[in-house]
Amino acid sequence: MKKKILYTILILIFTGIFLVGVFQVYWKLKEYGEGESSYTEIEQYVWVDEAPEDNEDGSQSGESGPDIRWPVVDFEALAEINPDIVAWIYIEDTPINYPVVQGADNQYYLNHLFDGKWNSAGCIFLDSRNRPDFSDWNSIIYGHHMKNGTMFTGLTAYKKQEYYNDHSIALLLTPDKNYEIEIFAGYVASVQDEIWKIGFPSDQDFTEWMDKTKERSCFRSEIIPAVTDRILVLSTCSYEFNDARFVLLGVVKP
Fold it and tell me: Which of 210, 46, 238 is closest to 142 using CA atoms?
């Protein structure tokens, strides 16, 4: 009799564990779906022109130089949904195509979508210490590394040289000005790393900081940032050790 009761209790325990696991998977998939749907809905406020057609000689029509397809962003409409919007980040031929917001701290947008709804996908956001016009020596944008490939998951692909070669330019659009981000370094950092500095005591300190980041890069780049440049850091989680982050650095060019 006792064995039968014990057996029944064990069945109930394992059934409970199974049901909790099923619920957790369901809830996570539900969150992923809501997050993707939320950002799909605001894509109506952003559009990218078709690539220019090749001429008979094989060249492309338009201005000379590398062809860049700049998105067009309706910031006024997006600001009506969320006045915290400060920019739009876009890397062609990647999933990275998102609004950038800035909160009063660096906690709120870790688990709130662009429309303010709670969701673990969060939002792509600018460090609350930064000026929203990206005029600081170093501006930092954060985004989650999601298992479904959304948000800033794609940044970790830059660990491979071939990927960097094909995606060396990011585009940052703001209500006042557009910027081309010339990516020059990427590496795995800890939360104690100096990459999180916003300002520097002198030009020499800033130059030394940039040199160190370039030395640590997991890919090679011919871009050499100057002391007069301003830097943009894109950050997401990585999993080489506890609290690891993969950071991608680029020179901000108007």
Answer: 238
CB of 198 within 8 A of CB of 237? no
Tell me if residue 237 is catalytic: yes
What whole-number distance in Å separates Cα of residue 253 and Cα of residue 172?
9
Mind giving me the DSSP string for 94-123? SS-EEEEE--SSSSGGGSB-TTS-B-TT--
Strand positions, DSSP E, 174-227 = 178-189
Residue 101 CA to residue 77 CA, distance in Å, equals: 14
Please pick, among 237, 239, 241, 247, the residue that the annotation labels catalytic: 237
Residue-wise pLDDT for 8-31, tens only, equals: 665 656 555 544 444 344 444 556
Q: Which residue has the tokens 């605001």?
A: 42
As a whole number of angstroms, the distance between CA 164 and CA 28 comes to: 31
pLDDT digits 0-9 by tens, 178-222: 999 999 999 999 999 999 999 999 999 999 999 999 999 999 999
Q: Distance between CA 244 and CA 35 in Å, rounded? A: 24
Question: Domain 42-48+69-253 belongs to what architecture?
Answer: Beta Barrel (2.40)
Listed in sequence order, the residues at least 6 apart from 135 whose beta carbon sits closer than 8 Å to its beta carbon are 230
Where along the chain do its domains lie? Answer: 42-48+69-253
